[in-house]
Amino acid sequence: MNAGISRLSLALAMSASIGLAGLPVTAPGSASLALAQSGPQSAPDREATPDLAGLLAALAAMQKTEPLPGLSVGEAIDPAFGIRILVVDFDQARFGLRVVEQRTATGSHAVDFLETADDVFVINGGFFEKSSGNQLSPSGLLIAGGAVVAEEHPRAGSGILYSDGARIGIAPRNALADRSALREAIQVGPLLVDPGGVKGIYKDDIERHNRSAICLRGEVFTAIVVEGGMSLFQLADLLSLPAADGGFGCDVAINLDGGPSTQALLRAGQEYRDIAGDSPVQNAIVVFPRGPR
Questions:
Q1: Which residues contact 177 (CB under 8 A, 6 or more apart)?
Q2: Is residue 16 part of a domain?
Q3: For the chain, how many structural domains are there in total?
Q4: Do the domain assignments include residue 251?
Q5: Is residue 10 part of a domain?
Q6: Is residue 21 part of a domain?
Q7: Residue 280 · residue 107 · CB < 8 Å
Q8: Which domain holds residue 219?
Q9: How far is Cα 277 from Cα 68, in angstroms, rounded to an integer?
Q10: What integer pLDDT is reported at residue 41 of this predicted model?
Q11: Span 85-105, pLDDT tens digits
């Protein structure tokens, strides 16, 4: 949707082996088991602003698995505020992305966007408009398979997530004038981390919503999905903070549509993670393994 109606959307056990994001890799399901064994918890506070130190502690405790070469996944849990953060890292040399449109005029859910058995991951994409007949259309620039589905709109987001078929990038909208080589692109935003690793959100609106984002770090692109809600300001904190300080250390990162649109599904090896959205969406980002180069 456009800016006016968009859906914006612990135990410190460290393993000796390190995943793509510089975080520990361990056996599947152990994070959930640790949470289950931690004993009774008080009811989470779903209204107050989450404590940044607690979120960083949750990330530090996150243990990751590597179900496929070049793909690692983990979940960080902050039980005090009822927050779950799904983190999926992809090596750009092994995985690419494409933009997929809805299967029906009234939108689709995450699982519906997976087109082949090789697709390993899907996450909701850009903002969209909803007609009086509940038909959905992209709010801004959308390129899928080299075809321009919708043109840029000044209120549909300040950034563009794109792929030229070989590399994945994130750029401010006004810095990407030549789009002739783009195979896939979604206009969305705002940029949570500006190019160069600088935090891109300067004011905290203190609005907790489910969130989804894409972060680039060197040769790795990372999908982040937040359930339980946090503000864009806090998400930008986590993404921009250097890894040495407990953050993601993103070179650049972009916010995707959020709120009830937030949804994702991972199916890789023995790993299956499903974050169901509250509503259908118009487009999504699908990750697939690259063939031999």
A1: none
A2: no
A3: 1
A4: yes
A5: no
A6: no
A7: yes
A8: 30-289
A9: 25
A10: 58
A11: 999 999 999 999 999 999 999
